[in-house]
Please model this.
Amino acid sequence: MADRNPERERTKVTSLDVAAKAGVSQSAVSRVFSGASASAATTAKVRAAADALGYRPNVLARSLITGQSRIIGLVVAYLDNQFYPDALERLSHALQVQGYHIMIFIAGGAQGAAEGTGDRVIDRMLDHQVDAIVAASVGLSDALVARCRRAGIPVVLFNRGQIDSCGTRAGLAQITSDNIGGARHIADYLLACGHASIGHVRGWQGSSTGRDRTMGFVDRLGAAGIVPRQEDGEYRRDHAEAAARKLMARGVDAIFVGNDHMAFAVLDVLRHEMGLDVPGDVAVVGYDDVPMAAWAGYDLTTLRQPVGRMIDATVEALLAVLGGGDQEFAAQEIGGPLVVRGSTRMPLRPVTGDIIRHNTKRNGHERL
Model:
């Protein structure tokens, strides 16, 4: 007969069992599995004991005792835009360091980001007892914001600003790049390159990011006496392709595209469908600086969203509220540099502002 192993015969292993085997206190076991501060040595002993005993913490039971699930609900409109997978990965890692995990819900399409259309998704998040909500490019209705407040669930808007029905910022933490300033920077650069017939593929104008980038670009060109030709891209690849064809039919020699996701579609049309030289025949500028922008096949000049600083600000706002702080926050708009690559010409005159010139062929860059 095989030797009996009492530890394996137990139907339920508890944190007390793990503590006894590891030679630590039960509170030390709790700290390790909650993500709180614990030394590397203690963590190693507790993890080894838990693995040997087959122990897994009951997260749901702990949440009932503490009143905290340690889960942050994250709702994102869509993942077609390459900016979001990168940003969500960074946010997940940053929250894990703080002992939190994220539960992701998809609102559904760029137009799913309209104010109020995220309500049904976030309503389901509340049913999962999340500790807080991050809405990435998703608008919320005034009613849902009020409901979250009553439930004590803080909300942070990431890469989206929102004005409530009273014309105020709704008291929500709102973290974005400086969309207006960034678009002005792009306009200044195209003007310095000598372009005078300029087009713009607009992002969805139902979003604050789309509106602000268009406003900053149009206003700055208007101050120089230039009215850009505009076409709607709606943050969709097929719409951006159609917009590129329409703008080229109108004779533009430079195009600012509302984000990199659409800019890649524009470049594909210009180079592979129309056989045009970029930037010889037409220059193209995007917005985001996702990793694909640096690929030799695109070599896209683009305004870099400072995603690292945006994530830091988002986590800081979440922790402040989760720690019992005031839920009233000022909107944060974080500026980023223009990264100049091969899809634009070199300027004919000096340009002010933060500019990084990147040489894809040499795999190097310098700040101007």
Remarks:
- Residues 112-116, 362-368 have pLDDT under 50 and may be disordered.
- The domain at 179-305+336-367 is CATH 3.40.50.2300 (Rossmann fold).
